[in-house]
Amino acid sequence: MAALLVDVDGVLVLRGDPIPGPKAHKTLLKRLRRTSRALSRKKKGSANRRKAKAKLAPFLSEGNRAKTMEAPVTAIIATDHAFYEHLPTLFPHADARSWFVGNQPLIDATAFRNATLHAAYVLLAARALGLDCGPMSGFSNRKVDEAFFPDGRTRSNFLCSLGCGDPAALYPDMGRRTFEETCSFA
Ligand SMILES: Cc1cc2nc3c(=O)[nH]c(=O)nc-3n(C[C@H](O)[C@H](O)[C@H](O)COP(=O)(O)O)c2cc1C
């Protein structure tokens, strides 16, 4: 086929590059079917998950241990404090890596801010999928980092169990501060 050029607002130009035909699509569907079948046959509470949970258990505060062991999934939300090494790929239009190298306070503040924001998006995404989230600060960050992130560049922020919450275990309505108590206009 001759090259097809479509110009949308001067941004998108489609060249004549071939796109996968129905045969490639069928192969992909076959692979998806196989993966889906394997996943649906996976036994709940696999050995790996049990092992990882057992590894986490001693580092949890007493009050968080039982519920974390019972949760189907617990994520360790952690921050990559060497994030700036990815900037030549993620932010290639400037030498952004050089803004951070050697400036540890800036690295730590930026890493913590951005990773915490992204963790909040993860919670929103999980809730949008109908899952409940149980964020937890009650654990030893140092011990979790030593056990799970021996590279030293990744540091845990908080834990978050994901699953279907038990309404019977909820506290009665907790207080909420009003907008006026919480925010002020400059
Ligand atoms: C950052 C953060 C840390 C928390 N740490 C714990 C914790 O260690 N143990 C616990 O039982 N609840 C903890 N909570 C509270 C619960 O995870 C949960 O947020 C609470 O039950 C209220 O639910 P809500 O998010 O709908 O307000 C924490 C909440 C947040 C936001």
Provide a quick synopsis of the model:
The chain is an alpha+beta fold. The protein has helices at residues 22-41, 47-56, 62-70, 87-90, 97-100, 104-128, 141-148, 179-182, and strands at residues 6-8, 12-14, 73-80, 132-136, 154-163.
Describe this structure in words.
- The protein has 186 residues and is of the alpha+beta class.
- It has a domain at 66-166: NADH Oxidase (3-Layer(aba) Sandwich), CATH 3.40.109.
- Helix content is 45%, strand content 16%.
- It is built from eight helices and five strands.
- It has helices spanning 22-41, 47-56, 62-70, 87-90, 97-100, 104-128, 141-148, 179-182, and strands spanning 6-8, 12-14, 73-80, 132-136, 154-163.
- The protein is extended, with a radius of gyration of 23 Å.
- It binds flavin mononucleotide.
Keywords:
186 residues; alpha+beta; three-stranded antiparallel sheet; 45% helix; extended; binds flavin mononucleotide
* CATH class type of the domain at 66-166: Alpha Beta
The rough form would be described as extended
Strand/helix succession: EEHHHEHHHEHEH
Helix content: 40-55%
**Roughly what fraction of the amino acids lie in strands?**
15-25%
Count all strands and give the number.
Answer: 5
| Rg from Cα | 23 Å
CATH superfamily membership of the domain at 66-166, which one? NADH Oxidase
Averaging pLDDT over every residue, what do you get? 89
CATH architecture identity of the domain at 66-166: 3-Layer(aba) Sandwich
How many helical elements?
8
